[in-house]
Amino acid sequence: MTGPFRLSDEVRSALEERRAVVALETSVLAQGLPAPRNLEAAAAMGLAVRRGGAVPAWVAVEDGALVVGLGEEELERLAAPDAAAKVARRDLPAAVASGGLGATTVSATLWAAHRVGIEVVATGGIGGVHPGDADVSADLFELARTPGLVVCAGPKSIVDPVATAERLEELGILVVGYRCRRLPFFLVREAPVDLEHRVETPEEAARVAAARRELGVGAAVLLCSPIDEARAMDAGEVAAALRACEAEADRLGVSGKARTPFLLACLAERTDGRSLEANLALLEADAELASRVAAALATLG
Ligand code: PSU
Ligand code: MN
Q1: How far is the CA of 138 from the centre of ligand 1 (A)?
Q2: Is residue 171 a contact partner of residue 219, using CB atoms and an 8 Å limit?
Q3: Arithmetic mean of pLDDT, 280-295
Q4: Would residue 272 be called left, alpha or beta, if left means φ above 0 and alpha means ψ between -120 and 50 degrees?
Q5: Which ligand lies nearest the alpha carbon of 138?
Q6: 123 lines ligand 1 (CB under 6 A)
Q7: What is the pLDDT of residue 133?
Q8: DSSP secondary structure code for residue 228 in this structure
Q9: Alpha-carbon distance 186 to 288, whole Å?
């Protein structure tokens, strides 16, 4: 593929040879995590993908192109404070036309991955329905219309998990628990939402992804893996910190795409950095699981 898509040599040959590739979003680096921890996270996630047997493909907008497979220097540029705009799928044409730097969210990353033939995407937490229902992440709508498999630790702790689960159902998005029977909730191991589908191994997850493809289902599968017990946070503590952060966001008038980064930063501050450590741990775990699923999927053909 040419035009505005630019693939790294490594990603291009992996795709040509039908080897496993995992697409990684960059908004989590540019907007979701503070420097320099964001670069540490990128390194840990890249290594985790390689450990699992796949090639990491970081996605971003740069120099008028949608790049799939960023190099180390490109990641560094992107991770500098305030260097990159937050780019959801709807923002892609404007971001490419501007010639500037853009960090892709789950929605833009899933779309780009599908366009270049990558089936598996990894992230920390997907966006969802915020309390009050007026602010709904574009991640949900993209999952509904773009095929693939997104590995995450559930919806981010800043959304309403019950409303988000309802919306996922309404949009026809299959949610599969990885070794869990309730919806993982990002920093917290579970939300009060029972899951109907569950897998125990990367191979089983890969079989679901392959069946989706063979059936021609146009929506992505959401594979949710709970945060490691040792890093997980208490639901009550996160909820209390969030209430204060929501109030602060309202007071300062933080809305639109700025709200999620604001809430994540506020949460880290109010939990003495523990939410940040938890976020980093789950990102690495998700990257490794996504890689193992992609590797298993590659052997299924
Ligand atoms: N997961 C994280 N941190 C993040 C995000 C995900 O652990 O910052 C980003 C992702 O890029 C996700 C986006 O797609 O937040 C959702 O933003 P919004 O709620 O504005 O749609
Ligand atoms: Mn929003």
Answers
A1: 10
A2: yes
A3: 98
A4: left
A5: 1
A6: yes
A7: 80
A8: P
A9: 16
pLDDT of residue 301: 74
Q: Which CATH superfamily is domain 5-299 in?
A: Indigoidine synthase domain (3.40.1790.10)
Residue 234 Cα distances to 146, 237, 296, angstroms: 34, 5, 34
- pLDDT the model gives residue 186: 98
pLDDT tens, position by position, 184-242:
999 999 999 999 999 999 999 999 999 999 999 999 999 999 999 999 999 999 999 99
- pLDDT surpasses 70 at 1: no
> Candidates 24, 26, 27, 59: which one to mutate for ligand 1, based on the most atoms within 8 Å of Cβ?
27
Catalytic status, residue 25: yes
CA of 139 to the centre of ligand 2 (A): 9
The domain limits of the chain are 5-299
Task: Kindly identify the ligand whose nearest atom is closest to the C-alpha of 141.
Answer: 1
Q: Which of 25, 74, 246, 284 is catalytic?
A: 25
* C-alpha closest to that of 178 among 27, 288, 49: 288
